Amino acid sequence: MTSRSFEPKGVIPACLMPFDADLRIDENAYREHLRDIASVEGIAGITINGHAAEVHALTIEEQQRAVVVTKDVLQSDVPTIVGVYTESSMEAGRMAAFAQKEGAEGLLVFPPAFMSMGGHLRPEMIREHLRYITDASDLPIILFQFPVASQLCYPVDTLLELCTRFPTIRAVKDQVGDGNQHERQIRELHALSKPVNTLTTHSAWLLGSLSMGCDGLLSGAGSVIADLQIALYRAVQAGDLKAAQAVNDRIYPTVRAFYDAPLLDMHNRMKEALVILGRLKEAHVRPPLMKPGAAEIEKIGRMMQQAGLTADNVYKNAA
Predict the structure, then answer these.
(1) Where are the alpha helices (DSSP H) in 1-136?
(2) Residue 219, Cα to own-chain centre: how many angstroms?
(3) pTM above 0.85?
(4) Burial of 33 (0-12, 13-18, 19+ CB in 10 A)
(5) Which pLDDT tens digit goes with each residue over 211-245?
(6) Is residue 38 a contact partner of residue 316, using CB atoms and an 8 Å limit?
(7) Which 8-state DSSP code applies to residue 205?
């Protein structure tokens, strides 16, 4: 293996996974969805096999097929970051090796859900999980820091130790959900002898999160509003608060469309938004997720209008 140069920073949308009415992957729709996101000027990569793609409902074979199809569409024009989502450390290593073999540029490593039963008290477990991955691949890793409430959040000392022990960890996708810990992590990751980036996924308070010093964002909302996310990120990087607030005013209705309770429906809602905006023909999700009701779909449509999003300007309105 050789060292990889991809540096995870900037705006990295996480794509959705379209299904047909029989709940099979709609590969043609998936390809078009990837092309739509890739058309947005300024994105730093696209993440696949993440929460936004309903990875929990995809078989390993489907996840591998997604890697192959994504690389066929994106080629080397846009970096592909592959989610590594599995309870098995051995399977995680195999997925990492497969992603590297197929030409992926990076990995997004999820914590095994099994660790919610006290894994934070056994940091050697996540070290072993990462060892299987890093033994199989030298791709740059984005380590997913889950919310504190999930019981899958790494204590700060553990997080820093992991980043030091495994130098291919080049960024943390931060969904910690606590502003105090969020800022501490940003600062202490930057202070490491080999600094590690923070990619926020706090899409419900994105302006505040970016203003704390994040190096970018990785979010499923980018499957719909990548152009607005880029405009916001650039305004914050430029220190232009007025411009950032103006973009945030555009983004806020999409927050209400996607991230109101229950949060687990967020990516269902993004699919419905893309149907409304003419970018998906149908919105199907695999159970146990369920299609939103008519009243909620109507609300999503109203929120898209309030955000100024239409079939003519989606993905390019903020350019």
Answers:
(1) 27-38, 60-74, 89-101, 123-136
(2) 4
(3) yes
(4) buried
(5) 999 999 999 999 999 999 999 999 999 999 999 99
(6) no
(7) G
